[in-house]
């Protein structure tokens, strides 16, 4: 890979407060709050298996290190807190840039919420704040989400966010059992975001 000559981007202005939530950096002490990553139902459509205890420790440590993305494939991970409880987490992963002098202009979003906090619009509220941060703070023109088309709750969240279902790729994602699943992509351009 070519070494970038783009200056590193500063860390984003975190924490962020919304009506009901705080979005903040994750720390290793969040391991109990993030235990939903051991739940097979939560991980059903995630691109990795449910964590055992060792994998959870590694996962949380990785998330805690994701504070100041700047280069393609670097990520920001945020914990979503309501009344002191960690209820979910969000990811913004920087992807494509125009050339090696430029910061990334395309980013991917991801989300995971504790089943005990589902169905109250918390993921919508938190993801709205993440996308606002992404367009306010990073020079992005496009944000996208990739998901298994069977993940109806995640697709519904993309649609609540105003994202457009742009593509359905057939059998492009390998499963551990040797089968291949489809992927759908939702996209959002800066000018489509109300605050963009
Ligand atoms: C994807 C995921 C975050 C969606 O969670 P969710 O609980 O469906 O989303 P929200 O928190 O935004 O809640 C939406 C629900 O609350 C309702 N709601 C209530 N108040 C609301 C409000 N103020 N704003 C928006 N929705 C509201 C909505 O009508 C919707 O109801 P429904 O469940 O009957 O359709 C969650 O299913 C998840 O973490 N899944 C496991 C991980 C995963 O698959 N991640 C994505 C990988 S691509």
UniProtKB/TrEMBL annotation:
Q: Does the keyword Transferase apply?
A: yes
Q: Does the keyword Transferase apply?
A: yes
Which GO molecular function, any one, fits this protein according to its record? acyltransferase activity, transferring groups other than amino-acyl groups
> What keyword terms does UniProt attach to this protein?
Transferase
Segments crossing the lipid bilayer: none
Q: Which residues form the signal peptide?
A: none
The chain positions of domain N-acetyltransferase read: 21-191
The source's superkingdom equals Bacteria
What's the protein here called? GNAT family N-acetyltransferase
**Taxonomic classification, please?**
Bacteria, Bacillati, Actinomycetota, Actinomycetes, Propionibacteriales
């Amino acid at each position: 890979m070519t070494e970038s000559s783009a200056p590193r981007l500063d860390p984003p202005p975190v924490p962020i407060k919304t009506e009901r939530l705080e979005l903040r950096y994750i720390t290793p002490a969040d391991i109990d709050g993030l235990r939903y990553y051991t739940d097979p139902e939560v991980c059903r459509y995630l691109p990795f298996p449910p964590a055992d205890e060792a994998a959870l420790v590694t996962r949380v440590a990785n998330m805690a290190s994701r504070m100041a993305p700047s280069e393609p494939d670097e990520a920001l991970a945020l914990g979503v807190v309501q009344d002191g409880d960690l209820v979910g987490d969000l990811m913004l992963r920087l992807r494509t840039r125009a050339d090696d002098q430029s910061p990334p202009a395309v980013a991917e979003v991801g989300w995971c919420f504790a089943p005990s906090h589902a169905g109250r619009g918390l993921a919508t509220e938190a993801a709205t704040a993440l996308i606002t941060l992404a367009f306010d703070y990073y020079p992005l023109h496009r944000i996208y989400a990739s998901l298994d088309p069977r993940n109806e709750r995640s697709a519904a969240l993309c649609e609540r966010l105003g994202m457009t279902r742009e593509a359905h790729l057939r059998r492009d994602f390998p499963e551990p059992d040797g089968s291949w699943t489809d992927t759908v992509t939702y996209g959002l351009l800066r000018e489509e975001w109300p605050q963009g």
